[in-house]
């Protein structure tokens, strides 16, 4: 069911929620009877304004279970719904706090950290213990965070560095690690602060500083190489004259 498009008959509006990343959400409940298969407990997230129609076509963005009942969280195709958004929008409903939410989209944020060393630009690469791959510091968004806050927190947790993402650079990397699940990672750029790196040993195996050529050879995935190339181009154009 996750990712399917369904027709939903709106039954009632639940409540006006607070804002999330600058958008105000309204949550509606509804029922779907596509192909004779009746689905109850459908929650439709509508940003910026309530739904005007009695029947809408939406995508199942997330599935969760609470008190033995399955809930289907939906939105139109133009609006992507992530777990932190769901939890924050529904935070006013104390009776709705599921332990686990499976989303069609997962979102993480991180940073390409660089330093100027002996006339060259070097990039901080970390090796994750779980995946045994080299990459940039990053991690999942949490409730009450925006993208930059997540990137700052994750870098601090994984490397001990307190960074300030530079204005003007933001890039998106997308891939599909779990079949239909889409993983979206937002990357910022930050210059190495005057601090020592202290890696999170439970998550990170080791780190290295690498120039562009070595970093490209070290990365396994093309997505990481693409982010590196974009960051390098931006740094060259904006910080070197």
What does this structure look like?
With about 240 residues, the chain is an alpha+beta fold. It has two domains: about 5-105, no CATH class; about 105-240, Nucleoside Triphosphate Pyrophosphohydrolase. Helices cover about 20% and strands about 45% of the residues. It contains four helices and 13 strands. The chain has helices spanning about 85-90, 145-160, 210-220, 220-240; strands at about 5-20, 25-30, 40-45, 55-65, 70-75, 100-105, 105-115, 120-130, 135, 140, 170-180, 180-190, 205-210. The strands form two sheets. Strands 7, 8, 9, 10, 11, 12 and 13 form a seven-stranded mixed sheet that branches. A five-stranded mixed barrel has the order 1-2-3-5-4. The radius of gyration is 21 Å and the shape is elongated. The model has no long low-confidence stretch (mean pLDDT about 90).
């Amino acid at each position: 069911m996750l990712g399917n498009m369904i027709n939903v008959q709106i039954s009632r509006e639940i409540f006006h929620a607070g804002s999330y990343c600058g958008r105000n959400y309204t949550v509606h409940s509804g029922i779907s009877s596509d192909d004779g298969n009746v689905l109850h407990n459908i929650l439709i997230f509508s940003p910026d304004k309530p739904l005007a129609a009695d029947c809408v076509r939406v995508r199942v963005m997330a599935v969760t279970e609470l008190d033995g009942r399955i809930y289907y969280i939906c939105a139109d195709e133009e609006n992507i719904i992530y777990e932190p958004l769901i939890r924050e929008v529904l935070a006013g409903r104390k009776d709705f706090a599921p332990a686990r939410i499976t989303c069609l989209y997962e979102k993480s944020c991180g940073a390409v950290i660089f330093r100027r060393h002996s006339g060259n630009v070097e990039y901080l690469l970390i090796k994750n213990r779980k995946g045994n791959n080299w990459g940039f510091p990053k991690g999942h968004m949490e409730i009450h965070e925006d993208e930059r806050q997540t990137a700052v927190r994750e870098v601090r947790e994984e490397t001990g560095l307190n960074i300030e993402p530079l204005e003007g650079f933001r890039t998106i990397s997308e891939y599909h690690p779990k079949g239909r699940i889409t993983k979206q990672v937002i990357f910022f750029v930050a210059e190495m602060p005057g601090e020592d790196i202290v890696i999170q040993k439970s998550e990170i195996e080791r780190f290295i500083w690498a120039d562009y050529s070595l970093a490209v050879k070290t990365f396994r995935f093309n997505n990481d190489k693409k982010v590196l190339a974009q960051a390098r181009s931006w740094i060259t154009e904006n910080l070197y004259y």
